[in-house]
Amino acid sequence: LDTGEHGTISPLYTGYSNSSSGNDLDINCIKPNKGYSFIGWKLNNENDTLIAQYTKKPSFFNKPIIVASLVVGAIILSFGIWALISLMKSDNVKQPSDTYEIKTYLEGDSLLIKKINSLKSNWENQKPELSEKGRRILDIFGGRVKQNDSASYKVWENLLQSIHSVIAKRELINNLKFEDLKTQLYSPKQEVFRKAVEKIDSTQYEDVRKQLGNVSDLTLNQIADSIDSFLALNEKIKEHKEEVKAVIEKKPETSKPQESKILIPPKSEKTTNPPAQKPQVLKYNTDEIIEYLNGSDLRVDSLQKYKEIVGNNKNLKASIELCLKLWSLDGTSKNSYFWMNNQIDENINSQYSSLTSSKLKNFLNNICKKDNPTYFKGLPQSDKNKIKTLTQLREKAE
Hints:
Elements: E1 7-9, E2 30-32, E3 36-44, E4 49-56, H1 64-90, H2 99-106, H3 113-124, E5 130-131, E6 147-148, H4 150-174, H5 178-181, H6 191-199, H7 205-212, H8 220-249, H9 286-293, H10 300-310, H11 314-324, H12 337-346, H13 359-368, H14 381-384, H15 390-397
Antiparallel strand pairs: 1-2, 3-4, 5-6
C-alpha cells in the first residue's frame, strides 16, 4: 500500500491488501491531510502497489452566495452596533452637576468677580475628554482620530462663553462704563440694575462715578439702590436751586416815576435805604429726610447736602451731624460706636428722636453687644475711599 502525497495510513492496518481494488480495506484506514478527501485506491501494475487517491476539498470562499451573504450580514451588524452606540451617547449627554449652580449665579444679581473667576476655573477643569464618537460606515474598516463628543463639548463650550461674557459685563460695572452698560443684555433678576443705569443721563456720568466710588464688592442691587438714592437727592437739590433762582430773579413792584417832576429831597433830610428783604427759606420735606436717615444708604455727600437744606432745624441737623461722625470714629471714649449709641439712647425724646428706629441704631446695637464696646475702632485709611454707605460699613464691621 502506498498512502500517496496527501495522507497517512492508520497503524491498525497492515500494509497490504488481498484485492486489486482495495475493497477489503476500511475507508477509514487512510487519514487524509487537511483540505483533502480520500476517494479510493489505484493499482500500479508495474509493482502491484495500491496507491491512495485524494481530491482537494472545495474552498469556502469559492461559494459566492455564501461569501456575499456573510459580507452583507457583517455590514448590517456593524451598522446596527454603530447606530445603537451613537443613539445611547446622544441621549445620555453628560452635564456636570454644577451646571445649574453656574447658570443660576450668572443670571443672579450678585456677579462678584472673585466668585465668577472661581466658577470659571472649576468649569475649565471639566472640559470633555476626547472620544471616538459618531464614526461613519466607511470609517469602520479604517483608522479614526479621536475627537470631542460634539454634544457634551457644545454644552461645555456654550457655558464657558457665557462665563466670559459675564466677566466682561462685571468689568464694565466695576469701571462704571454706563454708556456700554446700557447696551448689555440682562436677566430678569438684573432688571433693577438695568433700570437704574437707564435713568442716568450722559451729563451725570462723572458725578455718579464720583458718588459711587469703588463698587467691586457690591451686588448689582446694592449699586442700583445707591444710584437711585443719588439721583433722587440730586433732583431735590436741583428743585431747590430753581426755587432760589426764581426768588433772586423776582423784582419788587415799584410805582412808575412821574415824568413831569423830579423830586429832590431837601439837603437837611437824610436819605434812607429801603428795608432789606428777608432771605427766602428753602422748603424741604421733613418726612423724606427722616426716611433717608432711617435707611441703610447713608453716605457723606448726601448727608452734607441735607445738612445745608435743613438750615435751623436743630433736631434734624443734630441727627445728620451725628450720622456724619460714622466715618471719623477712632475708638476713643467720646468718639466710638459705644459713645454714639449712648448719645441716641440718652436723647431719645429730643435731638436724635429721628434715629431711634433707624438702621444706624440697629447697627450700633449689634456692634455694642460685643465684648469690646470699641470693637472695630475705625476705618483704615485704605478703606475710607471704598466704603461710602452704611451698608458697606456694616459689612466691613460685622
